[in-house]
Write a structure and sequence with these properties.
heterodimer, A: MetI-like fold, MetI-like fold, 2 domains, B: alpha+beta, Rossmann fold, six-stranded mixed sheet, 8 helices, 19 strands, globular
Amino acid sequence: MLALPLLHLAATAADGSPPNALFGEANLRLLVHTLALAGGVLAGALTLAAPLAWLVTRTDLPARRLATLVGLLPLAVPGYLTAYALLALAGPASPLGVRLPRLEGYPGAWLALVLYTYPYLFLALRAGFARLDPALEEAARMLGHRPGSIFLRVVLPGLFPAIAGGGLLVVLHVFADFGVVSLMRYPTYSYAIYRELAGAYDTAAAAWLAMGLLTLVAPVLWLEARLGGPSSVHPSHRNPPRVRLGRARGLAQTLFLLVFAAGPGLPLVALLAWAGQARSALGPVAGALLRALEASLPATGLALLLALPLAYLGVRYRAGLERIAYLGFSIPPLVFGLAVATASLRFAPWLYQSVPLLVLAYAAYFLPEAVAPLKAGLARIPTRLEEASRTLGRGPLETGLRVLLPLLKPSLQTALVLVFLSGLKELPLTLLLAPPGFDTLALEVFTRAEEAQFAAAAPYALALFLAGGGMAGVLFLLEGKKR
Amino acid sequence: MSLLTVHGLEKRFGKSQVLAGVGFTLNPGEVLALLGPSGSGKTTLLRILAGLEVPDAGWVRLGKQTLVGPGIFLPPENRGIGFVFQEPALFPHLRVVDNVAFGLKGRDRRRKAEEALAALGLTAFRNRRPDQLSGGQAQRVALARALAPKPRILLLDEPFTSLDAGLREGIRSEVRAAIRAQKIAALLVTHDQEEALAFADRLAVLHRGRLVQIGTPEEVYHRPRTPFVASFLGHTNLLKGEAHGDHAETALGRLKIVPRARGPVWLSLRPEHLALAAHGVPGKVVDRAFKGHDVTLWVRTAAGELRVQADYRTRAKPGDAVRLVPREPAVVLEGEA
């Protein structure tokens, strides 16, 4: 499902001659822009995520669970929504009544993407800090090292896998992002691909650019695999000591408050302000929501159905099969969408721009989000339980239904929420693959925001925001129940 | 007619040969203990019998039915064999009674589950969730769950090791009673020799994937076949000697031996078969360990350092000169000396 469209895309690129500009100055500028944005966002996200992760795992910060939620909330707010909010707040008709400097180009794209992607690093670093064996730090201390030296020589190397893993996600998201750079008018590869398609209808040129973007992904994947070093051997299972914040406690809380204000708070204020001016009725918003559900609900079901066997084989037989699914995730969605579109035109024209194709594309693309929690859940179920069930006279299928499925329930719920949320807010795949007139919430927001119709976009964006926030809240409650 | 027949089982994992031609039989109502050091292949053997592992060669027959053999493999769910794992492996999402009913089918499954719980005195726990049970309770529920479908054979993979000594004895006698009541046979894997000696009707010693000896606990303990069995099951002193029929010349002088042999031999002399006396082989005490019911002495003699199980009243201490006499004939072991 993943490989076929891509192979066809490569063939399409090979058919058409490379556009003249490909090796020229324009292409070089795209490359520099893409890399500069990825590097800048990575540095910004790391600077923001590291202190937050340290505060929630290693200090006596009050209400740490709530603080964690605040740190993760931007995950539910798509980047183009943040970009929209930044633009809408700074515009000449800003509802705030004050004239803010207009953020555009690199600074605007950078800010929106940092606010959108830092939770990936926050999540990875939080797990990284939790996995760090406190006994190692104690051992270093007994060997005569001071705290600064311990941080540099023990803690930081221990966090490398987390930084590499989270950083990979951030960089891939920047490569893949298309909504933010489009709204901020900062041309990167993804943006250029979209221009070629939407403006010039030049599939071959778009395919060539897509191949260029793919060649950027490969070294990043390689680097991540190299940096993901060995984890601790024989870890002790004690909780690390927590640093007493003392008077710095207020400062730490202010930091979280600021992050909240900038992350989900900013878009919310902008949305509420603009929604007041909007004249749009409830009907069109409900219609867009229904269309979003029509695509993302079946996609969620399909992704779970596909993820179950993949996760099972991956965990029980270590076949590394589930890695195929991860590979798909590293392909920018615009490239994937383009590949699916051209392949369907060539092989199954009756599928082109149909809802089933959109559902298939969603399911294939968001498969990793379903596989990851299921894999983690399965790894926690001892093989003994399956064996016990077999010796008690239950065959493989019955064992799966009566033992594994009930025990996987929390993981299934997590996978369901993650995939559903992704489908709901999905933009680039929808843009390329949705039938004409099949305008989901994401499409309504994007097309209106692109034309600076901030008021008209607001009701749709608000609905999207509330749906995303609601799902994130559900996820948070599920997480809490597991413990 | 034996209930279970095992013949020529072979199993390899990569380069290591885990089982190399294992065969034995199990009779109805019998408890056989499989004894061996870790890595000797005990657990693999048990898992092959259960159908959780497939042997590379050999066959297993239960009554007249072949469970596994050339071209034949009966999946575990169709074997009618009960399995109790080292850890209880209770289904965490099911109550105790539902765990026990898991292997039962038909309309009266609930009643049968209640009976199985009652037989082990677990009725009071029927509505608990597994995480609300202590280790001993959980293991008893696992036993009730394995016995409830009335298996023809019960396989026990070191099920008592995680329990403390007092609990272990209690659950052991419960297993015995249940096996007798249901007239089934049991195979117990253990590395605890005391457990094997006390619990089993017969025991089989596995070493490096081979069955080196099988017999009643008394036979195997008193007449070990190889130096490995002699030193693995209890403690022993190994001596070289030159056998002449019913006796052998050794560094300890002339010793009576069983069975009759000729030529150079390895002999086993148990610590409790040596005694301190006024006459006999001279030696010097090098160490002493008080065990409560008796005293272990290490005595340096012309035959090397010997372990001696002495009376609890003995006053001998390191440095003392003592004399030793054998109280039983030494056992001739297989293999060239």
